[in-house]
Design brief:
seven-stranded parallel beta sheet; globular; 10 helices; 41% helix
Length: 317
């Protein structure tokens, strides 16, 4: 039973985190979040939650966050950065500081780390390496009185997401962009499903368990299927444009150069290009959460339609 128990959350003001806070509340958790300032986002409307001012760099704030918590959900992290050291500072060192704060607290708690499927392939990028290292920090340093869960979501999309928006905008203008070979696979999951999985598994998964979070198509989708689902959601018939791997790498290299010579933080870098071009982002069914605990509810076509409808309602498309 989670009714009335306290969940402390990092990353609550991010894309996934905002959905996660509501999902935890719906499971009966009292919620305390770490935030630099009091969040005023409309997704928090009607929610009761405690706010601890600060970020992952503050030992005092982390101590206040975890004090008395039954559950700590670590969903904070960088997904893009100008240099590799930034990924390490936030994703690895931030996790280490949170673990230390929990270890010095008096209570026993469960720490749920929201990692990434990218952690499977740490050689691809500084981001992927940092997510794997964060997992290692948890396993190696969390005091025995605590238990842990590691969840690795695949690519998450849905309303409020800005990372997948360029693909929808391109298709809406008549061009369906595809990268990778014809056999490449990528898993996707709607943000409501991802948040729901985290909230349910937080209170019900066995101790020291690790799962990959995807939609029902655990083997993933080919780029042709993604392009078709995008077109159907938009009600358009775009021209399919396959981007050669060399062009994706070139664009990624340009982004990396921009990051070095300016203050910009581009999403597409050479590291990100390697992630995009990786052929196997499918998921082994053996790594799925037990169906008795959680199953995804939103298939890709429905999820894309919901996302497009929201984008249009906001004037983003």
């Amino acid at each position: 039973m989670t009714l009335g128990k306290l969940a402390a959350v990092t990353g609550a003001t991010g894309f996934l985190g905002r959905y996660l806070v509501r999902a935890l509340a719906s499971q009966g958790w009292r919620v305390r979040i770490l935030a630099r300032r009091f969040p005023v986002h409309e997704q928090f409307s009607g929610l009761e939650m405690e706010v601890v001012p600060g970020d992952l760099s503050s030992v005092e704030s982390l101590g206040a966050l975890v004090r008395g918590a039954d559950l700590v959900v670590h969903a904070a992290g960088l997904v893009k950065a100008r240099k590799a050291a930034d990924f390490h500072r936030v994703n690895v060192e931030g996790t280490a500081k949170l673990v230390a704060a929990l270890n010095t607290s008096g209570q026993a708690a469960r720490l749920l780390l929201v990692s990434s499927m990218a952690a499977r392939e740490p050689q691809l990028s500084a981001y992927a390496a940092s997510k794997r290292q964060a997992e290692d920090v948890l396993r190696q340093n969390l005091a025995p009185r605590h238990d842990w869960i590691i969840l690795r979501p695949c690519a998450v999309y849905g309303p409020w997401d800005i990372e997948i928006l360029p693909l929808f905008r391109a298709a809406n203008r008549g061009v369906a962009l595809r990268t990778g070979g014809k056999d490449a696979r990528i898993c996707l999951v709607h943000v409501s499903d991802a948040a729901g999985a985290i909230a349910v598994l937080a209170g019900n998964a066995p101790p020291r368990s690790q799962y990959e979070i995807t939609d029902a198509r655990r083997k993933g989708y080919g780029w042709d299927e993604i392009a078709l689902a995008t077109a159907e959601a938009l009600g358009v018939r775009p021209v399919n444009l396959s981007l050669p791997a060399s062009l994706v790498r070139l664009a990624g290299g340009a982004g990396s150069l921009m990051a070095r010579i300016s203050l910009a933080t581009p999403m597409l870098t050479l590291d990100k290009a390697r992630e995009i071009l990786h052929a196997d982002w499918g998921s082994d069914p053996a790594l799925a959460p037990p169906e008795t605990l959680w199953t995804p509810e939103i298939p890709l076509k429905c999820g894309f339609l919901k996302t497009v409808t929201w984008y249009k309602g906001q004037g983003w498309l």
